[in-house]
Amino acid sequence: MHPPLVRRLFAVLAALTLIFVSAPAVQAAPAKARVDFYVKNYTLAPGSNLLLHTLLFADRRLPVGTGDVSLVYRFIDQGPGFHLQEAGHQNNCSVRQPDLLELTCGAEVDALTPAGVESHVVGYVVAGEDAVVGRVGTLTATMTVKGYAPVTRTARIRIGERIGLAAADSAQDTSAAPGDPVDVPLTISNTGPAPIRGMGLGAYSQYSFESRTQFSNCYYLGGELRGCVFDQTLAPGATYRVTLPLRMRADTYAPSLQYGGWQWMTKDEFADARQYVEKGGFEPLGTPGRGGVLRLTPLATAKADPPQALEEYVSDGLVVSVTGRQSTDLAAVGARAAGRKGAVLPVKVGIRNDGPSTIDRTRVNAPWPNARVFIPKGTTAVRVPDICFPMTDRGVVDYGNGGKPGELRYSCYLDLLLKVGFVDPLTFGLRVDQVIPGAAGSVKVDAPAEELNKANNSAYIVINGVGPTPAAPPPGGQGGGGGLPITGPGGAAAVGVALLLVGFVLYAGTVSHRRLRRPGR
């Protein structure tokens, strides 16, 4: 049987197995996280106030406990009219009396992240009746995170000329099929005694609203209108209208309700909002279109300038009832990984939208899938996404313990917008407590009834598997059906070892067959 050659094959196989499957080398402890924050700039009319918006950051996810993050806002030598205030009811802020120039708040967050989290402070920046129009002040803010040095940042506060604006309810609710055009007329009137020198429009509509034309004075992201600036002067008492040429995207879920919303502001307030979006870590405002200029058309004629500000928000909106029948196919995405005892394996699973409809739950309680994840035997979930909650064997979900490690089953809530072709990923850290070849868990789509294809709603999570993925769950197992992508650092290792094993079995079988053949037969 050629023992030397067989021994060499075993030696090569053992060496490659150790190389591919052994735990990663011990690395130095990671450096301490970096923390930062950003406070929004404001333009306020005298006698008005606005809620403080403050985003908190860390260069990696940094869990914090209750009371670990404090924020102190101060006006220092800014002159009359600049004040701070807390809400009248019980809240997380306290204003210094009697000057109202310092506000101390506790941030209500459980972690700082690279994307930024809102601090949820219940504090206000106030422009008093004695505020001088055109005056620009500086709000100084200091954030202290337990275990870190304080960080100080500033925000610009401008006192704007008080103006009046009203919106007519001209955008009426309607119905449309996927792909149909929807024209949205918006009407506003200057109700104050002063001309309004430029307007801004913020769009806060669902993904299904797509622009048919992209104008050069508007901003778009993925075909979606995000905002416009109108470099026009609105005369006192005059009324103006603009029509937004939109359509329902072809991949809109049907039947459904889709919500569109638009908020008017002065061009100065729009500049504040744009800066907050760009510097605050949000999704970008987008890029200007390449078409003509979208203009406000006057409907009636009425009988260095300071900035201007509205006394209250002015907005408009409509609801589109999408007709027809158009659902989607949701597929579970499993994973395969390998590692020796004690290794923590990153395992990425999720749900993929195979179309034809996008699922959008940003503004409405639409049908929405959850991912149910069953942890493979012999492993422990030591890192769990915050949006995954422990689940009992009867399907009862513990919504108070998102991200809790050590459970056997999880129910995971996904992103609010699941576009066609997109995979919403969930990354678990699974520690190998016992090496069980081919240990299988699963990920399953908890899909709405109208989902098109139930056959691909399950997929396996395979740990240290060297053979082909089974076509159906093992008897009594928790896995699901469907093919699996090979993901994670151990995926290629498993394939390489599996190929070597297959090659060795074929060779050994050939040698054994030759040895058993008798002469003359």
Quick structural overview:
This protein is mainly β. Helices cover 11% and strands 43% of the residues.
Question: What does this protein structure show overall?
Answer:
Residues 1-28 form the signal peptide. The chain crosses the membrane at residues 491-511. Keywords: Membrane, Signal, Transmembrane, Transmembrane helix. With 521 residues, this protein is mainly beta. The chain is 11% helix and 43% strand. It starts with a helix and ends in a 5-residue tail after the last helix.
Oligomer classification? single chain
Please tell me the overall pLDDT.
82
Structural class: mainly beta
Q: Report the helical percentage.
A: 10-25%
What's the shape? flat
The number of helical elements comes to: 3
Unreliable stretches (pLDDT < 50, length at least 5) are: 1-27, 470-521
- How far is the first residue's CA from the last residue's CA? 19 Å
Radius of gyration (Å): 30 Å
Number of DSSP strand runs: 40
* Largest sheet geometry: 7 strands, mixed
| Proportion of beta-strand residues | 35-45%
- Provide the spatial order of strands within the biggest beta sheet: 17-28-24-19-22-21-25
